[in-house]
Design a protein that fits this description.
single chain, 58% helix
Length: 57
């Protein structure tokens, strides 16, 4: 397993559990439920800072 595979492999059971527990939920609710579950499991979710691709002058 490569380092890039570790996170997706760790997320798969969490995603499966949330999807199974809320089969009628829409995408937005599922996203919030997954984030809540990951936080409950001790994950810290932060956005990567966005850097401009071209200079602003």
């Amino acid at each position: 397993m490569t380092p890039k595979q570790a996170v997706p492999d760790a997320l798969a059971p969490v995603l499966a559990a949330v999807l199974a527990g809320h089969p009628a939920a829409g995408p937005g609710l599922l996203a919030r439920l997954v984030v809540a579950e990951l936080r409950d499991l001790g994950w810290h979710i932060t956005a990567t800072p966005i850097s401009p691709t071209r200079s602003i002058q």
